[in-house]
Amino acid sequence: MERGWVDSHCHLPDVPAEAAEVVDRARAAGVAWMVAVGTDLATSRTAVHYAEEHDNVYATVGLHPHDALKLDSEWPELRELATHPRVVAIGETGFDLFYEHSPRDEQATAFRAQIQLAHELDRALVIHSRDAWDETFAVLDAVGVPPRTVFHCFTGGPAEAKRALSYGARVSFSGIITFKNADDVRAAASVAPATHTLIETDSPFLAPSPHRGTTNEPANVALVGESLASVTGRSREEVMATTSAAATAVFLTRS
Ligand SMILES: [Zn+2]
Q1: Strand ranges in the chain using DSSP code E only, listed in sequence order
Q2: How far is the CA of 36 from the centre of ligand 1 (A)?
Q3: CATH code of residue 202
Q4: For 19, which of 12, 122, 138, 233 could close a Cys bridge (C-beta 3.0–4.6 Å)?
């Protein structure tokens, strides 16, 4: 595997030509590979398609908590798609009680099904948890934490980070770590061991400073890595190496 940054969580454009440009710009910016994340059947199919087309793209298959109501209609095809060899994780799944676009019971049902699938297919699990720490850990307790689990776009503080780490999970930091008002997230990053710390863009959302408010893309993941370096007192090179190794251990390793 080529040396460079890893964007552990991005959403690529729906239009293939646009996605190809984004992928090319990432490569030029020193991104070795990225994980294109699905949030429902249509976006999961697109992510798998991009992973087939680009050797530096891997895919996830899953239902975002916002889309939990699609479980009944989309689950058989999602399950089948998840067996594809370029699919490295199930999710993003979990709870979003900030927006609560789906009822929380439906979010819990979709989350349980996806945790079980991660176990069954030996894939990593990508968790989205917003305003829902207790609910998230309760379901993980009930179903069992997959050995390779990531809390994506980590927005908690040190206490929540320690709780996630106590489950053996990894934490992934987004451009939020560069925002002025994110001292709590930076404090979380400073307590997480390098072996369990990943970085991501969550593009097209959450462009890091100084691009905040613009359309984000995987090429910007270096800005997240540089911010993590300054927070942890590690060198840029070291953060590139440790976050890439952590991403490899989660996504490109099977139990
Ligand atoms: Zn996402």
Answers
A1: 5-10, 31-36, 57-61, 87-96, 124-130, 149-151, 170-173, 197-199
A2: 9
A3: 3.20.20.140
A4: 12
Q: Each residue of 31-73: pLDDT tens digit?
A: 999 999 999 999 999 999 999 999 999 999 999 999 999 999 9
- How far from the centroid of its chain's Cα atoms is residue 85's Cα? 18
Per the structure, the complete domain to which residue 127 belongs is given by 5-251
Structure pTM?
A: 0.96
Query: CB within 5 A of ion ligand 1: which residues?
Result: 37, 202
Instruction: Report how far ligand 1's centroid is from the alpha carbon of 155 (Å).
Output: 13
Q: How many domains, in total, are found in the chain?
A: 1
Q: How far is the CA of 199 from the centre of ligand 1 (A)?
A: 12
pLDDT tens per residue across span 207-234? 999 988 899 999 999 999 999 999 999 9
Ligand 1 center from residue 9 Cα (angstroms): 6
User: Alpha-carbon distance 2 to 181, whole Å?
Assistant: 35
What φ, ψ does residue 21 adopt, rounded to 5°? Answer: -65, -40
